[in-house]
Amino acid sequence: ALLDRFCVELTNLKGEPIVVDGEDAAREKVLELLAAHGTKRLLAWEFQYLPIARMEAAIRSAGIDILVPDVRDEDRPEMLALAEQAQVGLTGADAAAAATGTLIVTTAPGKGRIPTVLAPVHLAVIRADQIVPRIESWVAQQRSAGMAGIRSAGNVCFITGPSRTGDIEMELILGVHGPGRVQVVIIR
């Protein structure tokens, strides 16, 4: 029921849930989506934080340049210039809230915010068992674990569908302040 609810809520937000069975199907789907977006450069988390084995090798075999942005060093301007050319940002998530269709993401070294906000498409990969009923459920899990996950994070982000803004005429526009598309591959 949580998977179904998450998919409904994400779809209502103009996000795109894609449910697959197993890691092999997830790897194939990610490659298919990257090809559909004409991806030549990919912003990504370090692949240890994605729930798919051998994903990095598969992406490299497809001829896609992978950039794991680290903007804390002296190469910051060059790194940001390269990152701006990426078509897709690929991440995992700490959890997903079914009631709101929200991805819950904590940041740390190797899993920064740039892949979630800079590219026109944010592609996240999660396992179905990461879906919790509500954001409050995830916070309760964090409390019962002594808040270690939150305390060690650079920040906590709640990503609820594509970036959206409304103008004075109340016209909704997607993608002005972040990705205009959010796709979530969910491994059942």
Which structural class do the helices and strands define? alpha/beta
Q: Helix count? A: 7
Mean pLDDT: 91
Gross geometry: globular
Major sheet, described briefly? 6 strands, parallel
Per DSSP E runs of 2 or more residues, the count of β-strands stands at 12
Which ranges are low-confidence, i.e. pLDDT below 50, for 5 or more consecutive residues?
A: none
Distance between the termini: 12 Å
Element-by-element helix/strand order: HEHEHEHEEEHEEHHEEEE
Strand content: 25-35%
Strand order of the largest sheet: 1-12-7-4-2-3
Work out the helicity level: 25-40%
List keywords for this structure.
7 helices, globular, 188 residues, alpha/beta, 4-stranded mixed beta sheet, single chain
List the SSEs and their pairings.
Layout: H1 2-12, E1 16-20, H2 23-36, E2 41-44, H3 55-61, E3 65-67, H4 76-83, E4 88-91, E5 95-97, E6 102-106, H5 114-117, E7 121-127, E8 131-132, H6 135-144, H7 148-151, E9 156-159, E10 164-166, E11 172-174, E12 181-187
Parallel strand pairs: 1-12, 2-3, 2-4, 4-7, 5-8, 7-12
Antiparallel strand pairs: 5-6, 6-9, 10-11
